Amino acid sequence: MKTAITPTRAENFSEWYQNLIVAADLAENSPVRGCMTIKPYGWAIWELMRDEMDKRIKASGVQNANFPLLIPIDFFNKEAEHVAGFAKECAVVTHHRLKMIDGQLQPDPDSKLTEPYIIRPTSETIIGDAMARWVQSYRDLPLKLNQWVNVMRWEMRPRMFLRTSEFNWQEGHNVFATAQEAHEDARKMHKIYGDYMRDVLAIESIMGEKTPEERFAGADHTYTLEHIMQDGKALQAGTSHNLGQHFAKSFNIQFLGTSGKLETAYTTSWGTTTRMMGSLFMVHSDDDGLVLPPFVAPYQVVVIPIVREENQDTLNTYAEKVGEQLREKGIRVLVDTSDMRSADKMWKWIKRGVPIRIEVGSREMDNQAVTVTRRDLGKSSQKTIDIKNLSDDIQEMLQTIQNDMLEKVKKRNLEMITNVSGLDELDNMLNDGKIGFFRLKYEHTLDSKFDDLMEKHKISRRCLDDNDPNYVFVAKSY
Fold this sequence. Notes:
alpha+beta, BirA Bifunctional Protein, domain 2, Rossmann fold, 3 domains, 7-stranded mixed sheet, 5-stranded mixed sheet, 14 helices, 29% strand, globular
């Protein structure tokens, strides 16, 4: 059977993913090594994802702010343990002016900065510096901040939406008076992320705490959301960190408590990135292209008039009437009246993952009806609907698609999680080509033999099982 994307997922999942990005017109590699340009259709998906996430963050009492792109290097020296994880990825600004030298623009030697600046890989340090000024009394707490920005981590093996040197994200940073409040906040944001990914992205996350070996540098606890791709590999989709007093002590975030004594605060940080888009694409899409949940589809419906030269104007008018009827109900609709061949239009929007395709031809116009096809099910879902009930029927269908896509992921997750009794069984399964997540007792991964298996099979501890922290999930990852 011919497919739009070759090779197929089964033939070469990695190459299929790269070709999917191109076929759906989502992004392209930029002239800057390791960076990507997100194209309008891809950015429209991100905007929908971002706006819904922003609503949920604000509903938890967080305010948005914006902090500088450049961070003084001495801020990083204050928090050496935390920065160690980013040190090899930092981009450094050393000059503030260019000069024509030997016919080429080059950094002017006379403009060298007395102190280099780091292009932010994350903002704990500069936000911590601000919090130390903004928090003076218990009355200033809790202080809850978030920013939507781009960051830079020099990536050696870039892959669009998965690992790029520059990427977009939100990073939240909260300050509290007590350890209990910080603990509850880190867990709350973890849950907010999980609910969002389930309700909006139609992805059920594997949720749990990172093991001490894998947790965020400088954190007391790191909570992660792991997604299982169709090839069985893991993708970390978001994290929430309880930083305890570690950063507060480094940046002197203190407040006058109710007792009148100076106390050190407790902080949390939490973030999600455009990597969620890579997860969204890889979890749901098929060999014909993108498959999008309705909540984040730039167009939830595309209306395609199947025209002949003699009926073009009347059929386009009918298609616009159908589109307007749906727009009145708040449905995002595109009526494609371009001069492309009808078959080419269909493939264009199939590859871009529009949840519902509506076709109207002379027969539909005469019967005041439309032909409807679900992207997630294909031709088997095709049916005719009277336009009198169209808006209600489409709204119901969109919700059904969202629910069905989530249930499909839940079912696949269960099929891709394997319980193993120990390291020998894990080794045998991986040798036999078994894919997915492997659940085993955490204590087994403390055996030196597990280090050998990590090197041999390129696996890692993903997170402890939230339902039973004595067990850990292990998998290959992106």
